[in-house]
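Protein modeling request. Please complete all fields; requests missing the sequence field cannot be processed.
Requester role: graduate student
Desired output: 3D structure, token encoding
Chains: 1
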Amino acid sequence: METPVKIFNCTQSKELSKSISEHFGQELGNVNFSHYSDGEFQPSFEESVRGARIFIIGSTHPSSDNLMEMLLMLDAAKRASARHITAVIPYFGWARQDRKDKPRVPIGAKLIAKLLEAAGATRIMTMDLHADQIQGFFEKPVDHLFASSIFIPHLKKMNLANLTVASPDMGGSKRAYAYSKFLASDVVICYKQRARANVISHMELIGDVTGKNVVLVDDMVDTAGTLTKAADLMMERGALSVRAICTHALLSGDAYEKIENSKLEELIVTDSIPPKKESKKVKVLSCAKLFAEIMHNVHHNKSISEKYII
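Delivered output (310 residues):
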């Protein structure tokens, strides 16, 4: 007898979960949330999950309520005797705290990994982690998907002449080189110095962008300070156009205004995080089909390696 499959959503990823379930070919399961006046909440599965393989979909971007919601749902599934519990986390929040970069700070990403496992997750499915080594923080299987399988076909369809791939910082150079292999393009790298978190004091460009259509590649965009500064610098250095592709659109603070006022022609993102508002410069590509295909393969014990590009 085949193990039944059930898909549930956290509230912050409701629209993405609906789209994933449609591609998977199954309706979302019924989960109800009770709320107390002080802000506390309690999820409740309104159908049996005993012996089932369940997928709980929810990104864990701030506020911390999003993470707490995922943890409570995992715990509820464990206590309801689900057989396999997969936490589907399109955007793995707190991932920038993947190491001690100065004394007396936490390794937040490791803490989140342990919390997810303690809550009941038997498998983790996520996309474009800020640091690949976060996979090693888990003792459970991790399916680390790459949005390049969405972005690269889109870029090829655009058929940009004199294409050059760029990394907005030294840490993203590996990702930029990987994209350049599939796009047969040159690579340039931005070198930046920060005065403090989210504040850039100085930026320089390594490479020539004269007469090039540049595509900046990054895993996330938060305040958009780095991307917009890099785009303005590249246009000053003779680039024909500058676009950016970023998997996770945090877009906090005045990020939308920075993008609108910059020389960035277009920002292409996925729907791993629900968009806060619309912008003529921001294009959203859905990752629902990718997650649905991987979930299907995991359930049927099929290889997922063919879904990887980089």
